[in-house]
Amino acid sequence: MISFGDLPHNLSIRNLLDIAIIALMIYTLLVWFKERASRFVLMGISLLGLLYVAARFFQLYLTTVVLQGFFTILLFVLVVIFQEDLRRLFERIAIWGRIGKKGSEQASHHDIVEIIAHTVSNLARTRIGALIVLQGEEPLDRHIQGGTLLEGIVSQPLLESIFDPHSIGHDGAVIIDDRRVVRFGCHLPLSDKASQLYGVGLRHTAALGLTERSDALCIVVSEETGAISIAKGEKLERMMNPSDFWVAIESFYLKKRPLKGQSRPLSWIRENTKEKVIALLLACVLWVVFGYQRESIRREFIVPVEYTKASPQWVIEEPRITEAKIMLMGPPQAFQLLDESSLKVSLDLSSLKEGRQDFVLAKDMVKAPSTLTVVSIKPVRASIVAYRLMNVSSPVEIVTAGEPPPGLVVEEISASPAAVEYLMPSRYAHGVLTVRTEPINLSALTSTQTLYPKLIFPPEAQFRQNREPFVKVQVSLKKKGRRRD
Does domain 107-256 sit in CATH 3.40.1700.10? Predict the structure, then answer.
């Protein structure tokens, strides 16, 4: 069982950051689904999630296994249930960066609110139907069909001319984005909430249908009664007096673009306090159940040994150890996140000396996550033999095989250059070293030829920039019994 008295001692900066990230994610989901119709489904799933957490906490094996299988199936069902909500959520995340950039372009929307309010009041007084959409931060293109592109500045004469009964697009919706009339004569998706829309017209159904799918605000003027209604956040509300209508539009614009000097640094803290507290508590509970490091386990790994910081002028002779067995200790959660391919023992060879030498494999040579502790390393020592590379020059010995064809004899064989340079460990550099060519088959030659045979170097030889030297061999043949003048 968990000792709650030990919890404060186990909290680290990493754990606090972990809790903060999860709390922020939970808070985002709570606020997002707060006004969604599918929030009741989310509440039911959350209750099952709490039951699963409790089962894990109290180690109820059967309940845990059953709920794990249930959530595996539920994962696919959630994609269908929350398809539209998830799509809107991802769209909202994608435009968060754009929202931040637009914050620097704040300006008063009082004149736009005044134009819209006066226009809607005139339309309501003359019983002219209208449907105006004030676009929020979310894109509306996938929800809107038809319409005519306008891109005009918002004005009362423009809006009244669009909704004039003799106008072609007066039955459609007008899309306003900030100060521009983007499109008119548009068709919006209809709402499925027939019970809430009893006794209203098609414009109201379309207005609520769009607000169910976006963060837009829709203004509806009934051509039968002249009543003004506002659809926002999946709710349709009738405006009983002009002041309420004015406040609703003004609040929408202020939320979308706060005025300079009106943004309060602490306003975010005071908003959605209940959701913040719930998110923080849930994050803490999840950390205690899944993230709290209650016990440590040990595991062994076979890891590669890498030799680093060795100068190119040194050569390390074989055999040398290439693998080591290490034992790591830490919480099970740390092992679950461990990438075994990242484990290795790094041996620093910057202080090499000639000859045989031993290096102690210390724990700090192991490259492992900071959440895991190195308990042991086997072997504890690594013995290597190192020699400095020296430049040597050896004559080229030309090796031949067979005899020239009948009637021909070898007049002269020469190599150019006559000697080649390469690198050898110091222990071999002072001996007698020779470099031979691969055998040249004289029986295959019918005339004087220039050849480039492969050179055979000592096994310990190395080359500068890994470029192996080559020689040109000239084999001169002449007819038997013929002398050169």
Answer: yes
